[in-house]
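hiii, so i know i said id send this last week but things got crazy w the move. better late than never?? heres the sequnce for the chain we talked about at the cafe, plus the structure i predicted for it. fair warning i was half asleep when i ran it
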Amino acid sequence: MTVQTPANAPRALWRPNRDRAKLTQNIVKVICGSFAAISILTTLGIVATLFFETLSFFGDVPFWQFLTDRKWTPLFASKEFGIFVLVSATVMISIISVLVALPLGLLAAVCLSEYATPQTRKFLKPMLEILAGVPTVVYGYFALLTVTPFLKGILGALPFIPEIKNFNALSAGLVLGIMITPMVASLSEDAIFSVPQRLRDGAYALGATKRETVTAVVLPAALSGIVSSLILAVSRAIGETMIVTLAAGANPTLGFNPFVPVMTMTAFIVQVTKGDAVHGSIAYQTLFAVGTTLFLMTLLLNIFSFWFVRRFREKYD
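okay and structure toks below
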């Protein structure tokens, strides 16, 4: 019995199948390319909207005033546009969150990758990532109703700690750090877990202990992935809205005092979008100026992340 294959079958039998497969591949390419083009066009549309509206804002407000004013009062009668009032609050809360998320996330990643058994890792990692699924508004009320009273009870008794207000940057930063911990832990654990086992075996063969192997071999080898996870978490913290809106307050204060109410860039955007500012007014245009500043901050962080990964990524054959 002769088996009909593409090599010996009549061309009329297998040519239509080949044409149909090529047509299907072309259709798939068009569909995938269309979705990619939609994402690119959406990004360009967002950038164009921010750019032109920000140009309108700087047509009324000098750029130097935007950088040097010491107050942020675009919704008041006496208007001042010092963007660093909002930037300082955003940076302060982001730093507090990183000081919480970096040790917790990194230690959790090391535990899951290097010390936990496969069964324990399979159970603990999804449990840790559940925190990433909690709505941010829940975190915000947790910071306002639980963390802030706790801080006032613990730190309020210390003589060298100033009075902690009901709305403050400290509680918002602490809870924000808890929120981004799963991101740091999960991505760092993936980076640590991908380090080749032969590097660990080589360290053990030289007489290194488990701790020495982790700190001197594994973590340096996974450094690019750990830094990338941290920068991604910082970008998430900078763009967070509900936690800082509910817990940090809405008082634009210049400085780095974590015990007083502050206003971040995202909190101001929420305030403007409530409808208090008239469309097309200078107060409304500040929405896009602040959004552009926030966009540039996250863009610089991502550029630094790409550079760092390409500069320090370890490649193994």
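btw The chain has a mean pLDDT of 85. thought thatd interest u
miss u guys!!
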